[in-house]
Amino acid sequence: MYVLPWSFGSSFEMKYRKKVAEYVFNNVNIEEKPTLEEESNLIDYMLGEDFEWKSIKEEIIEEQKYEKEDPSIVNDPNYVVNTIDTIRHRNIIKLFMENDLSVILCGPPGCGKTMIINNAHKNLSGIVDPKMIFINFSSMTKPRLVTDALEQNCKMSKGNKETILKPDKKVIVFLDEINLPEPDKYGTTIIIE
Fold first, then answer.
1. 133 vs 101, 118, 127, CA distance in Å?
2. Which residue in 26, 127, 156, 157 has a CA-CA distance of 20 to 30 Å to 49?
3. How many domains does the structure of the chain reveal?
4. Is the pLDDT of residue 117 over 60?
């Protein structure tokens, strides 16, 4: 029930995503449905570690306790003010990361894609803290940039006909601004392909 609105509605505008969530909530027949607060929707809830439904608002209140205990935390440049949206996105991205699934975040510059990934990485639980490899693309980026970044963070071993790069521990590769490399004279962007 939790994944259906995200699977089918994640690329929709919020008003349509809420309609998908409302449809799923009203038409999926399971025993364990969350009790929705007034003016809330299924996408305003998440499954906790014990697989109990939890309001994202409760999560915000819980996380604000830490801010009250240590007010200086808000001076940290990596600090993220938790809102329903930041927690909602963080939890979805965490699910992908914890299950070794790829994710693509699309949006205009400055909308918070990098912040969402960093926030999800910072809050990973249940797995060894993975190493983040950030690769920032530009119009002049060549495949060698990616190869160099992987070689710096992986052990190289030779196979029969190929070279294999193996990381010491789990690695998350974050490719930022992947749309920027310019196509060659044939209209291809070799680094992306």
1. 16, 11, 17
2. 26
3. 2
4. yes
Q: Please tell me whether residues 110 and 142 are part of one structural domain.
A: no
Q: State the Cα–Cα distance between residues 47 and 23, nearest whole angstrom.
A: 19
Q: 147: number of CA atoms within 13 Å, CB side?
A: 7
Name which residue leads in pLDDT, 65 or 15. Answer: 15
| Statement to judge: residues 112 and 189 lie in one domain | no
Per DSSP, the chain holds a count of helices (H) and strands (E) of 6, 6
Model pLDDT for residues 30-81, shown as the tens digit of each residue = 777 777 777 777 777 787 777 778 888 887 887 777 667 777 777 777 777 7
This prediction's pTM: 0.65
For residue 34, the one-letter residue type is: P
Q: Nearest 5 degrees, angle CA 140-CA 141-CA 147?
A: 155
Q: Which amino acid is at 81?
A: V
Measure the CA–CA gap between 176 and 124, rounded to whole angstroms: 20
Determine contact, residues 30/53, Cβ cutoff 8 Å.
no
Calculated CA dihedral for residues 125, 126, 127, 128, nearest 10 degrees: 80
SS (H, E, C) 95-131: HHHHCCCCCCCCCCCCCCHHHHHHHHHHCCCCCCCCE
Same domain, 16 and 66: yes
Residue 145 token pair: 């940039």
Domain of 18 in residue numbering reads as 3-127
